[in-house]
Amino acid sequence: MSDPRPARPKTSGPGRTLVVFYGILTIAALARSVFEIVVHFDVAPLAYLLSLFAGIVYLVATIGLVTPGRAAFRLATTAISIELLGVLVVGTLSVTDFSLFPFSGDRSTVWAYYGLEYLLIPLVLPVLGLLFLRSQRSTFARSAA
Question: Quick one: which of 57, 66, 59, 64 has its CA closest to 12?
Fold first, then answer.
């Protein structure tokens, strides 16, 4: 028996809020990293390249979240999983070895200190994103038809 209720759009309510946050982080991470790479790459190349990578991951996640279909669901799930792994690994490295990503100045990265410079949003967002995707699995599948 099919569900008589229409599929809840991914771009309303929590889905829209999630997409807005991903869009903001995409712009913030990409703009910051491109500026730092162009202006003073030699100061902290690892941090700037990680910020660029984070921005690309946020962009891919945003595209996956707004695109209908199973492939988009897999794309968003993969990107957000990579994001969570990145935040946890880089965040842990940054608190265990302060020399890798000094918190002072502009030698840090988006995911350092679990995203503390970004109000910990990089730590919370992938968890919320994965929970949202889990709740919307059938909506993504139905939107492919």
Answer: 66
